[in-house]
Amino acid sequence: MENNSYILMQRYELGRQLGKGTFAKVYYARSLITNQAVAIKVIDKEKIMKVGLMDQIKREISVMRLVRHPNIIHLYEVLATKTKIYFVIEYAKGGELFNKVAKGKLKEDVARKYFQQLINALDFCHSRGVYHRDIKPENLLLDENDNLKISDFGLSALAESKRQDGLLHTTCGTPAYVAPEVINRKGYDGVKADVWSCGVVLYVLLAGYLPFHDSNLMEMYRKIGKAEFRCPNWFSPEARRLLCKMLDPNPNTRISLAKVRDSSWFRRGPKSKEKEVAPAGTEVSSPSENNMAAEENEESGRPSNLNAFDIISLSDGFDLSGLFEKNPLNREARFTSREPARVIISKIEEMGKHLKLKVKKKDHGLLKMDRLEEGRKGFLSIDAEIFEITPTFHLVEVKKSNGDTLEYQKMLEDMRPALQEIVWVWQGEQEQTSQEQQQHEQEELPQNQPQL
Ligand code: AMP
């Protein structure tokens, strides 16, 4: 298979081998339908069943489905035959970050960029109850734009697999990168263990070699247990400070990811521009048809008009959005207002100031609200679009155009009271409640594992 091309299920043409893991080989491939370049991870079913790893593979699938982020390798689909499982995943053209470091240490600004992307993606995973548990440069890939992509969720754990003490109990990871509490097998907190591994990665990026290294494995474990490492003289004082806090042998006092993101070293230099790297199919929403209609509206500066179809589809009883939207959390919020457009605009501007959002007025009654601080999935950006039904009756649609969905949900909650004075009715309040109940009922049913 290495040299000849091979057609998989009449859908993918497999090419050269990209890499090899313990139970899998990864190939470059191209979709015969869309011509898109992808990577395909081929897993031998028999091998993994022999060592009882089928559950781990199923977990990798659930985890990859759960975490969609510009800095995490995207799982497109899973195919299976009698003997093999195929993960069709995003292709990272730049290969492993490890190869860059193997050539020597990185400049501080370059290391910072990768580190920022790593921490943002991991913080996002943690917010969804997922820990990676095997963070190391070999599992950090680069795309064609030199953006970092976390791969290999084979060892990741979901919050559900915690024991009653709330700690994880499987020893996993790669010796040089694992936290002392993981080695001690006393049970560990996946979040804190990932922070340690990121500390080791940061050290490796800046130094070009490992912080804990010894030809004798026991000696290496001893050094890890005591966090016995030395920073080379080219490390800046801020980088040293941050490393000492991340490589704290006591998980209880070890720095949190939120504090890492707040540290002066992390915040210095150019920030990761996630807005530019978000690939198609992430949670970043695309312009709605209403936006497009607004673009066609020649009279700029004024709110867009709604046609009868828009009004029907926006009204509760005829709301068809559920048919199209995959993620109910991501959905837009709408309210009607009996105020004129200028009053609505000035209220939104006032609210923006209060909530520390930069509000920009665009054409056709569109307001863009950007958060000044970077969130876990880039900068949160929210659009509010005002549609005129009559000069004193408007519909306002609020939706996320960039950033993390949970941060967006939280911001929406803060916006509601701030807009109270101009809101006549929030649309879909009743409907949303019944949907939430349905969703809750579904969550209580046993989850179907993918059939392999
Ligand atoms: P894994 O089994 O996920 O550890 O993958 C083994 C190796 O295959 C990695 O270390 C990479 O060199 C390569 N690889 C894995 N996934 C991809 C990908 N999505 N794009 C490019 N190379 C990959």
UniProtKB/TrEMBL annotation:
Catalytic activities: L-threonyl-[protein] + ATP = O-phospho-L-threonyl-[protein] + ADP + H(+); L-seryl-[protein] + ATP = O-phospho-L-seryl-[protein] + ADP + H(+)
Pfam families for this protein: NAF (PF03822), Pkinase (PF00069)
Record field: compositional bias (Basic and acidic residues): 268-277
Matches recorded under SMART domains: S_TKc
Residue span(s) of domain Protein kinase: 12-266
Organism: Rosa chinensis
Family: Belongs to the protein kinase superfamily. CAMK Ser/Thr protein kinase family. SNF1 subfamily.
Protein name: non-specific serine/threonine protein kinase
Annotated region (Disordered), positions in chain: 268-305, 430-452
Cofactor: Mn(2+)
Enzyme class at the top of the EC tree: transferase
Gene3D superfamilies in the cross-refs: Kinase associated domain 1, KA1 (3.30.310.80), Phosphorylase Kinase, domain 1 (3.30.200.20), Transferase(Phosphotransferase) domain 1 (1.10.510.10)
Comp. bias intervals (Low complexity): 285-294
InterPro entries found in the cross-reference section: Kinase-like_dom_sf, NAF/FISL_domain, NAF_dom, Prot_kinase_dom, Protein_kinase_ATP_BS, Ser/Thr_kinase_AS
Residues of the NAF domain: 301-325
Binding residues for ATP: K41
EC number per UniProt: 2.7.11.1
A GO molecular-function descriptor: ATP binding
